Amino acid sequence: MKDISAFKSPVEAISERKCEEYAREIMGITLVRTRDSDVRIEPNRSCRSASRLATDSNAAQEGEFPHMVAVGNRNSDEGNEFIQFCGGTLISHTWVLSAAHCIHNIDRANAVKIGTTRLTDQKGVIIPLNMR
């Protein structure tokens, strides 16, 4: 069997880099680059109390999964109505990683909803997507 590293691209994808950055954040370390090109390591406590697994089919508690987002369509005709059809994960403060089929039809997915544990709640924020 061939070594899997032989199949890996020599150029790191943005999604890989962002995923590694987010992994460092939830592990409690953030790299901070300064003008002096020194790199400082600062603790990050933003996800300290978050559980990393959904278990036993229990309802999620407020703030328990701060990295989860709903991917869907904001219906501008109905005000703030949001129709969710996929999930996603924040891999940085501005990037969401989701399955390819969630955005395959660009007309379908036009927003993400963050900051709520129930999609029917008025809580949370709906953010328009900027596809790249």
TrEMBL record:
Signal peptide: none annotated. GO terms for molecular function: serine-type endopeptidase activity. Transmembrane segments: none annotated. Keywords: Hydrolase, Protease. Gene3D superfamilies: Trypsin-like serine proteases. This is SER3 protease. It comes from the Eukaryota. GO terms for biological process: proteolysis. Residues 58-123 form the Peptidase S1 domain. InterPro entries: CLIP_Serine_Protease (IPR051333), Peptidase_S1_PA (IPR009003), Peptidase_S1_PA_chymotrypsin (IPR043504), Trypsin_dom (IPR001254), TRYPSIN_HIS (IPR018114). Pfam families: Trypsin (PF00089).
